[in-house]
Specification:
This protein has about 350 residues and is of the alpha/beta class. About 35% of the residues lie in helices and about 10% in strands. Strand 1, helix 2 and strand 2 form a beta-alpha-beta unit.
């Protein structure tokens, strides 16, 4: 779970809270909307030496939390060894998994043990078997039951619902009503909340820009999802990010190809910002303002719509969606229905 006191303190002090660490791009869930083009067989992964060095640097730089990402991080053979290493450094482990490795209940047990003070995020955007197969053409709808059994085992061994998220991706292939049904099921059946991600328009191999338009949900559908979720969890306001801007400004990502960016969904490859060529510590120290969106902390630098929005204290739109749409890191979030 997020430590909001620490998060807000880090934001105020211009420090860092979380490191998103992509250990590799291997994943067999095959989501057709995947923002980072995960593959069935590894193409890019960080070496063991780089991961250990990055963890040590993260501790020295004052990070408190590691977000383990892939691909599917639980397919990394020695992932638990690295999570142990992070824990020994005093870093909190958060796991982001598609959920399929939880078919092995021993994997569930070990993940829960190492994420004791953190959270586990699982990815299941729909409970509709036909729609699941559209989202994951190489998989079978039986995956739904596998993922749900893993979640139920987590709860059975005492892992708290407040430490579990269902991270969904909302695309134009899905109706708002279907996503709402999924969110309501997780909330009512398991007391698990949802992290809502709205599609990022990156060019995926095999798709033209025109074909990608089918993944873009309509603004009224996005609004319907957010309004229902607000009512469901009794939250007065929800930022258009998957988390608030305080998290965005205090998070740094190391991608599976070694590049360092402000967020794992920002696939930017800047010269001089790769941990294969230089230390993570030096990269963060040198490019601190870029990585923390420091420019956006000044209200006059927010996108015009954000400047007038009543949620500007906790939201500045999704920087990744702006970047993916060609508006740059500091432009308007094209999926925001509020501005």
């Amino acid at each position: 779970m997020l430590d909001f006191d620490q998060l807000n303190m880090d934001y105020a002090n211009e420090d860092f809270y979380a490191l998103q660490l992509e250990v590799g791009d291997k994943c067999y869930q095959g989501c057709i909307y995947c923002y980072m083009n995960a593959v069935a067989e590894t193409k890019n992964e960080l070496t063991d030496e780089i991961i250990s060095a990055v963890l040590a640097d993260a501790k020295e730089l004052g990070f408190s939390t590691i977000e383990w990402l892939g691909g599917e991080p639980l397919l990394r053979q020695n992932i638990f060894w690295f999570m142990e290493e992070a824990k020994e450094l005093g870093l909190k482990n958060n796991m982001w998994t598609g959920g399929l490795p939880f078919a092995d209940l021993k994997t569930v047990d070990k993940t829960a043990e190492l994420c004791e003070n953190g959270y586990i995020s699982i990815h299941l955007s729909t409970l509709n078997p036909e729609l699941y197969k559209i989202f994951h053409p190489q998989r079978e709808a039986d995956d739904i039951a596998v993922i749900l059994r893993g979640i139920e085992h987590l709860l059975k061994i005492g892992y708290l619902p407040a430490q579990i998220l269902n991270s969904v991706t909302f695309t134009g292939l899905q109706t708002a009503d279907d996503l709402i049904a999924t969110m309501e099921f997780f909330y009512h059946e398991y007391q698990i909340q949802t992290s809502i991600n709205v599609y990022h328009t990156y060019l995926r191999p095999g798709y033209s820009q025109e074909e990608l338009l089918k993944f873009v949900p309509k603004p009224e559908e996005v609004q319907k999802v957010y309004n229902r979720y607000r009512d469901l969890v009794k939250a007065d306001n929800l930022p258009m990010n998957c988390v608030n801007k305080q998290y965005c400004a205090t998070t740094v990502a190391v991608l599976n190809n070694g590049f360092v960016t402000p967020c794992a969904t920002i696939r930017e490859e800047k010269v001089g910002m790769n941990v294969k060529d230089g230390s993570f510590r030096n990269i963060v120290s040198t490019h601190r303002d870029y990585l923390s969106f420091r420019e956006l902390k000044a209200e006059q630098n927010l996108p015009a719509g954000c400047q007038k929005c009543g949620m500007k204290s906790q939201c500045w739109g999704c920087r990744s969606r702006s970047y993916a749409a060609g508006n740059g890191l500091y432009g308007k979030d094209p999926r925001c229905f509020r501005s």
